[in-house]
Amino acid sequence: MNIRKIALLLLVLVAGVVTAQQKKITLEEIYDGTFRMQYLDRLHSMNNGKEYAVLNTDRNSGVKTLDVYSYKTGEKVNTLINSSEIDGLDYFIGYTLSDDESKVLLSTKLRSIYRRSSLGVYYVYDLESKKLTQVAEEAIQEPTFSPDASKVAYGLDNNIYIKDIKTGETTQVTKDGVKNKIINGITDWVYEEEFAFVRAFDWNADGDKIAFIRFDESDVPEFSMDIFGNELYPSKDTFKYPKAGETNATVSLHIYDVASAETKNVDLSGFQNYYIPRLEWTPDANVLAVQTTNRKQNDINLLFVDAASAKARLILSDTDDAYVDVTDNLTFLDNNDFIWTSEKDGWNHIYLYDKNGKLINQVTKGPWEVTSYYGYDPKSKRVFYQSSENGSINRGVYSIKINGKSKEALAAEEGTNSANFSTDFTYFINSFSDAETPYVFTLNDAEDGDVIRKIKDNQALKDQFDAYVISEKEFFILPINGEELNAYMIKPKDFDPAKKYPVFMTQYSGPGSQSVANSWSAGNGYWFQMLAQEGYIIVCVDPRGTGLKGRDFKKMTQKELGKYEVEDQIAAAQALGERDYVDADRIGIWGWSYGGFMASNCIFQGADTFKMAIAVAPVTSWRFYDSIYTERYMTTPQENASGYDNNSPLSHVDALEGKFLLVHGSADDNVHVQNTMRLIEALVQANKQFDWAIYPDKNHGIYGGNTRLHLYTKMTNFIKENL
């Protein structure tokens, strides 16, 4: 060996040496806030595009202020609200400015219902007159200003109401709302969870009409959960939950005229109308845009409804052999031409259509994905978006002319860039991170991307990690089953290629998801570093069916959730086991939710590959999961029984050989604990020994108090004892 090779080897060995001063991460530190990440507070871009508002809280007095800052300088220029100066209101939690910024909705006494929904007591504060008006005595949902801020529409007890701020008069728009039967203007459980919205009503541009969706849940089966609480007798939480193949709510569309107090029914029977996943008024106050889809969700119709006649016409139909994603990317130009995103060329891209649905041009093109659509600036005629064109594990921010020309890379440094634009697209706040860099926030010029100033970084956190044993996250490509899969590996800091190490695989693997990303990873990322300190190699592989590699890669798992992903994870583990430094007899896998479904399947179907597995809140049969998510990928059990059953962990319990830990929260309204109970019974009847834990009254996130610390301690101990 020559001198140069010896020197290089010494450098490698020195780089992996753990110094005496460095210490190991502990679970207590992960969950007691030792590693504090600095984020930007939620901001609201003001109409002038040059200023933004931020809600601040004085930690000593508890006083909240809504302060306005200059984008360019970061200096405070004004205080819109000071809670200590509002007569009749001691505090508030959140705020929403009216379109004209003359009034503010203030929220108090918020109480979560499900993932996105909440109830609260709301007030309107007039910024000029300083007058405070309570919207309703009761806790309400989704209060929304009319465009001129003269009224607030809201949901209460499954009905829609309108409060006139000036007169104080309240009008009840609908009167047939009944719990677990009829809902007006607020989505049901499955729409909220899978179509990701709660407010199912919208004001038109003139503020004289409200369009809303009505949900008839009468025939939807109910699901009940025991809530153990602290009382002598548990209570029950009962709600409508359509599982795969079961009856969904019947939805209908209506338009309410504020002046006449009349409601028109919109006939959608001539279109794909099983679901109505989106509605919004166009800039034309007489034209309502509605998106509808069939039960398979592979044909989305964009409809324009004439408010005067309540007649609907088809503008666009986006179809796919598998499914079409519902997004919030629809954007209207002043003349009702519109921007739409679609995977129709094999990658997710931006398209421009005229108001009659005729394609004008494809705005973005290439073998990469538009991952976020930020908006359109009519002055510069530019579209702003985030994409993976600098590599599928990276994200960059770009702008392009609406004609598809003159593309500008605004923030495309290798890593993950995400933008928040000012109202007039003069500036954007860019958040950047990569695997080695915690979040850095900068103010950038939206024309060329130049950094104007640094707003906040996490250098203190980065410096803090210098005192700890931190390993590099190494990205690589793993050739598996004819595909090149994205992967990363975290080795022990003192890694010795001459030794053999156990491998702990982490994954999610769900449709369109991505776990292998060049971004900072807190939470589980710290846990993985802790496990690497204990001598484990951490590996993550994104299998077929995950996202950012085109339509065909993502949708090839259609009707077979859990087949190809499991094959890929098993094959990946076997490929890793062939490496000289991997102990092929000590490979484990874990996951949460879809990842728990995968971990269960992997240890059952890969009994000769995996020594142990941990499944947290897993789906154990897609027959138990909700209709909208499941049928999007699997169709119904009636149509695809083999796809459901052949890929269910319940069908493979007889093959379990390794160590298995099964965890669930008893109050999981999303993936019901029924999934785990059925798997427990199947394992018991197969006479398979395993470990399990139920966390009382905990939802899908399994958190609260010491819960996360307890859970991760249990999982860490299980890994140490069995891998």
Structural account:
This protein has 723 residues and is α+β, with helices and mostly antiparallel strands. The protein has four domains: 42-167; 173-328, 8 Propeller (Methanol Dehydrogenase, Chain A), CATH 2.140.10; 366-461; 470-721, Rossmann fold (3-Layer(aba) Sandwich). Helices cover 16% and strands 37% of the residues. The chain has twelve helices and 43 strands. The strands form ten sheets. It has an eight-stranded mixed sheet with strand order 36-37-39-38-40-41-42-43, sandwiched between helices. Strands 13, 14, 15, 18 and 19 form a five-stranded antiparallel sheet that branches. β11 (159-164) and β12 form a beta hairpin. The longest helix is centred in the last third of the chain and has 16 residues, at 707-722. The relative contact order is 0.08. The model is unreliable at 3-15 (pLDDT under 50). InterPro entries: AB_hydrolase_fold (IPR029058), Pept_S9_AS (IPR002471), Peptidase_S9_cat (IPR001375), Peptidase_S9B_N (IPR002469), Serine_Prot_S9B/DPPIV (IPR050278). Residues 1-20 form the signal peptide. Residues 98-439 form the Dipeptidylpeptidase IV N-terminal domain.
